[in-house]
Design goal:
single chain; 218 residues; alpha/beta; Rossmann fold; seven-stranded parallel β-sheet; two-stranded parallel ribbon; 7 helices; 9 strands; 36% helix; Oxidoreductase; NAD(P)-bd_dom_sf
Amino acid sequence: MTSTPRTALLVGATGLIGKQLLTKLLHVPYYDKVVVLSRRSLGMVHTKLEEVIFDFNNPTPSLVKADDIFCCLGTTIRKAGSKEAFKKVDLLYPLSIAKLGLKNGAEKFLIVTAMGSDAESGIFYNQVKGEVEKGLSLLNYPILHIFRPSLLLGNRQETRLGEKAGEVLAAIFKPIMLGPLKKYRAIDSGKVANAMLAFAKKTEKGIFVHESDILQSF
């Protein structure tokens, strides 16, 4: 166990990265407690796990309390049903959690966005990801880590045809994606989870952006 008990809070525990990150958080001695905020029960039991059924539209501020907050929230416009609904999940919810956590004493916020995130982008997806990064950077968290993975590889609960096609193409072109092109390689979701946990243990203050080519080494 660590000398000072630490609590991690995770949102997005049912996603591709979130599922793997949760397992890792539960099995490292760095954290004494892992709180998961979720709309429905995960059906998991662990001595370190505290599961909280949470209403993201009407959040209870006192429930968002931890030393380190991990945000793996994310959806697609198709799954969300509209651009507005997508923006709620990928922008409004993360900002809400971050603000409440900071008020309750959180020291670190770690979030997965995407390669190409840019608030000024003409591509809606990249624009929203850039907006959440910009909003978080204005909150003055002592430590903010932003992870920008490329196309994620892993076993998803639902099939996304576009991403499946992307995975096939990524495998074909991987041998020639070297040097500056390395960051465009598809990346295993487990590596992103590993990187989040590794950087969560660092104490240097500031805002840190981790591009996909760096995440490939974890």
